[in-house]
Description:
single chain, alpha+beta, disordered C terminus, globular, 18 helices
Amino acid sequence: MSRKKNTSQGRGKTTNKLAQNLQKTLLQYIEGKRYTPLTASELITQLDISEMHQEIFHAILEKLVAEGILTCEQNRYFTPKAKILLASGIISVHPKGFGFVKVGSGPDVFIPKHLIQGAVNGDTVEIEVSPEVSSKGPEGAVISILKRSRSHIACTITEKSKNYYHAYSPLMGAEKPVLVKFSKELNLEEGDRVICKVLEWRNDNDLVEAEATQRLGNILDPSIDVAAAVEEFALPHEFTQEAINEAKQYGKKISAKEIKARRDLTDWETVTIDPDTARDYDDAISLTIDSRGHFHLGVHIADVAHYVKPGMHLDAEAFTRCNSTYFPGQCVPMLPEELSNDLCSLKPNVIRLTQSVLAEFDKNGKLVHSEICRSAIKSKKRFTYKEALQVLQQKKRSIHAPLLERMTQLCASFKIQRMERGSIDFAMAEDVVLVDKQGVPQKLERVEYDITHQMIEEFMLKANELTAIELGKRGKSLIYRVHEEPNPESFQDFYAFARSLGFHLPAQPDHLDIQKMFAEAKASPFLPQLSVSFIRSMKLACYSLDNVGHYGLALQHYCHFTSPIRRYTDLIIQRLLFDEFPSGSDLTAIATACSEKERISFRAESSVVTLKKLRLAKTHFDEDPTRTYRAVITKVKPFALFFEIADFALEGSLHVSQIGQDFYEYNPLRMQFRGSRSGEIYAAGHQIEVRLDRIDLILQQSQWSIVQLKEIPRDRKKKR
């Protein structure tokens, strides 16, 4: 009997000790800064509670709730002090699965991938917001989907099974294939791009079920890339007849009466400078120097607010879009072509209505005086960036050469001021995909960020800044373009990356140290990689009524005013300047909508550009599968290295196991791989030779292999 009693007591002590340990582990986890309220089953998964201990775990949860140590609401557990905040908003889902929800005028709430609960980009969701704030900001979890953003999705058929087609949808991501019912009307094949009506957003297998309603074409047909993207990202692309009629009613000429009511600047020397492919010219420049050496700058912006009034169908259509979306060879405009490419476009030798920022600067570019007025101009010349550069380089003659020279002088002063403020000058070239009329990519053209691009950017920045200051002086609420200062922790990876490339940075760099580093980088091959890494370390710019400043530009007052043909916020600013914005209108809702639509357009544009680059790479692959390409390693992670192929401006990656025959060890301090036998080093900035092995146009993925490492650095200690 005594043995049985002792055994029973021993088991009791063991159970009590186990319960104490489980309770301690549970409370430590729940009281952690990054904890988001979870259900019991989610806690079991996160804490890896074995099946034999789950009954005890549930009992501990009940005990802690009964004692008031924990609170349980909607089956989710948290400490009483961490009272859940319920909020709702539109979710923006990243391709990697996590998301952000904009809640009022506050910061975006981060939603981890496992707490999305089946929400897709654009859905209106109800979320629980954790009171604890991490380095990323507030975090939360989706608890219900209040409104779906769409009833249809775009997919590409990947395979055929017994009862369904399996399809890839960019909206859902590669990890969640869409099940498309067999269609009698549409005999679908692998690679067909289709529009599907959603039947069930989440079936028992957590997958979307749908039926195909329209076949757009096959993935091998590049002419439908834009049409497919328009459907994939739900971009409004057709204008109502009422809006088109409103645009047409203005005719093609400006009345003398309207010109008389404005500042007549039609005899001023004004010019436009835009890319080769531009069709809408919404800004023009004039610049003179007086006898004192003072500059008189005029930034003339198309007066879209004169044509698009609140309450019009045109206004409703513009707000539905919030911005134009630009694809290679095509544009989905915010306004009908009757306005965007005609009356509102500052074409040469025709009178156009404008809003002008007129500013006087001293010899050093310091502001003396500024004003904003409604005006009428007649552009004297439509320059492309290339043509303007040829004139400045004296390769081409122009009567406007003195004007362009004056523009470079004032630009130089503005750039000095910009550097003194602490702004970073990237001066990055841009790779543009050129396509033919059928959408077939022909080549990649590198557009250098030369002086012509720089001076137009500086003048637009100055006009935007002066406009924001003017509205602020009047005490008006306005939509600012803001860029929050990043958390210091966000830059630690960037600092480590820069040091791994050989750039010296102190332990706690300030903006002057960063400026100096980027100035040095311009003389090295590392500028693109540094710039991209720096940008990724920062928060996204957005629109807000709260003026938190613009970190990237180092400006306290900044708004968007200079592109009203393609941005709705700029149109709103134009109305505010001349008291044409209806009282009672919700500026916050406009700012939120414009920020969200901007992200969607960016994703749509990037998707098509990537697909075009892959098509170009596939053309080369089909011609010669053995061809090799020069690539530069851009970053090294513990599991893989990443590189960019210069010929296509495409990023590729290789898992560490695919690098070579050696065993490669990762050095976290230097961010590099080193072969344990050969001493070969793979680090950011090194050039490698790669070969294309496979392209998947549907998933927009490419597979590469290393052929040869050029000038392989080796570990000298290992060699000795």
